[in-house]
C-alpha cells in the first residue's frame, strides 16, 4: 500500500482507517479486506450506507491522531512525496488543501465529468490562493482534529452534493484559515455522462432542500448556482426561464453527452434543475 509506505518513510505516528460504506461490489470488498493485514491499517465494513457526511464524521470520531487526512476512494497518489509534503507543513496550519488533477484531457473525446473536472476543479496553487474558501474539496484535505470536531459534516445531508462546500464555508465563518499547497491527487472516478447528469440532478435537489430549510441562509449566498437562481427570482423570471429552457432541454442534454461539451450549457442546465426542484418543493409546502 503506497500510502502506508510513505507514512513509514516520514517517521510519522500514523493510522490509516478505511471504511466500506455498505458497498455491494464484492470484488472491491474482497480486495479491501486484505488491507487489514497491513501495519497500522484498520479496515471497517458498515452494514448500512450512512451517507457521505456521516461516514466522514464516523471515521474522524474513531481517529486517534491530532490531524486528519481525508482521501476519497477514487483518488490516487501520483508520486512518492505526497505524505512528506503534508508532514512538512501540517503543524503550522489547521486546514490544508493539496489540490487535484484529472487524467490527460483530450477535448475531442472528453466526457462531461472529465471536462468539468479539468476546466472547473483543477486550479493552480496561485488561483486557489485567490479564493481559499471557494477552492477546496475534501477528497484531499488535512484538518486538525480539534477543528473538525467543532464543525463536522452535516449528517442531515443524506444525498449527494454540497457537504464539502458547506464545511468550507463554515470553516471561514469561524475564522479558520484554509492553507493551500501544491500536493495534488489524481481523480480517477470519471463517471459516464448518464451517471454524472443523474448525480447532478440529485445535487440540485440537495441544494434546493438546503435553501428551503433556511439553516444555511448565509452560507448559500456564496454558492454561485444559488445566487443565479436568486437573481432570477428577484426579477420574477423563474417561470419564464423554466418554460423557455424546457423547450431546448433535450437538445442541451444531447450536447452535454456529445464530444466537447460546453460548460455554459451545463451551468444553465443545473440552474433549470435547481429551479424545478425549488418550484416542486415550494408547491408541495404550499399544498401542505
Main-sheet strand order equals: 3-7-5-8
Task: Please indicate the count of domains.
Answer: 2
Strand content: 5-15%
N-to-C order of helices and strands: HEHEHEEHEEHHEHHEEHHHHH
Radius of gyration: 20 Å
Gross geometry: globular
In whole angstroms, the N-to-C terminal distance is 54 Å
Describe this structure in words.
With 288 residues, the protein is of the alpha/beta class. It folds into 2 domains: 2-187, Alpha-Beta Complex (Spore Coat Polysaccharide Biosynthesis Protein SpsA, Chain A), CATH 3.90.550.10; 193-287, no CATH class. Helices cover 52% and strands 11% of the residues. The protein has helices spanning 2-10, 26-33, 52-62, 82-89, 112-121, 125-130, 145-151, 163-173, 193-213, 217-220, 224-234, 238-256, 263-287, and strands at residues 16-20, 41-45, 67-71, 75-76, 95-97, 100-101, 140-144, 178-180, 185-187. The strands form 3 sheets. A 4-stranded mixed sheet has the order 3-7-5-8. It has a 3-stranded mixed sheet with strand order 4-9-6, with helices on one face. A two-stranded parallel sheet has the order 1-2. Strand 1 (16-20), helix 2 and strand 2 form a beta-alpha-beta unit. The N and C termini lie far apart (54 Å). 26% of the residues are buried. The model is unreliable at 283-288 (pLDDT under 50).
For this entry, give a set of tags.
288 residues; alpha/beta; Spore Coat Polysaccharide Biosynthesis Protein SpsA, Chain A; 2 domains; four-stranded mixed sheet; 13 helices; disordered C terminus
Amino acid at each position: 500500500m503506497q500510502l502506508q509506505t510513505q507514512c513509514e518513510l516520514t517517521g510519522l505516528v500514523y493510522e490509516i482507517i478505511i471504511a466500506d460504506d455498505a458497498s455491494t461490489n464484492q470484488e472491491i470488498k474482497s480486495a479491501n479486506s486484505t488491507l487489514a493485514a497491513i501495519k497500522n491499517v484498520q479496515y471497517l465494513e458498515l452494514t448500512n450506507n450512512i451517507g457521505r457526511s456521516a461516514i466522514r464524521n464516523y471515521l474522524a470520531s474513531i481517529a486517534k491522531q491530532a490531524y486528519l487526512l481525508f482521501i476519497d476512494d477514487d483518488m490516487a497518489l501520483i508520486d512518492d512525496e505526497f505524505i512528506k509534503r503534508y508532514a512538512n507543513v501540517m503543524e503550522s496550519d489547521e486546514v490544508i488543501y493539496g489540490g487535484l488533477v484529472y487524467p490527460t484531457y483530450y477535448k475531442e473525446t472528453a466526457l462531461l465529468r472529465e471536462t468539468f473536472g479539468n476546466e472547473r476543479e483543477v486550479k493552480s496553487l496561485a488561483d486557489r490562493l485567490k479564493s481559499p474558501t471557494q477552492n477546496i474539496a475534501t477528497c484531499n484535505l488535512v484538518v486538525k482534529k480539534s477543528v473538525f470536531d467543532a464543525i463536522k459534516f452535516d449528517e442531515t445531508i443524506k444525498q449527494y452534493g454540497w457537504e464539502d462546500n458547506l464545511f468550507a464555508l463554515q470553516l471561514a465563518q469561524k475564522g479558520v484559515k484554509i492553507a493551500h499547497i501544491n500536493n495534488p491527487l489524481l481523480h480517477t472516478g470519471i463517471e459516464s455522462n448518464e451517471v454524472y447528469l443523474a448525480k447532478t440532478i440529485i445535487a440540485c435537489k440537495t441544494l434546493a432542500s438546503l435553501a428551503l430549510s433556511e439553516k444555511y441562509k448565509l452560507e448559500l449566498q456564496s454558492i454561485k448556482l444559488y445566487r443565479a437562481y436568486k437573481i432570477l427570482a428577484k426579477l420574477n423570471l423563474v417561470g419564464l426561464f423554466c418554460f423557455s429552457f424546457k423547450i431546448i432541454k433535450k437538445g442541451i442534454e444531447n450536447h452535454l453527452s456529445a464530444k466537447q461539451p460546453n460548460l455554459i450549457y451545463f451551468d444553465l442546465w443545473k440552474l433549470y434543475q435547481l429551479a424545478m426542484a425549488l418550484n416542486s418543493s415550494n408547491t408541495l409546502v404550499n399544498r401542505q
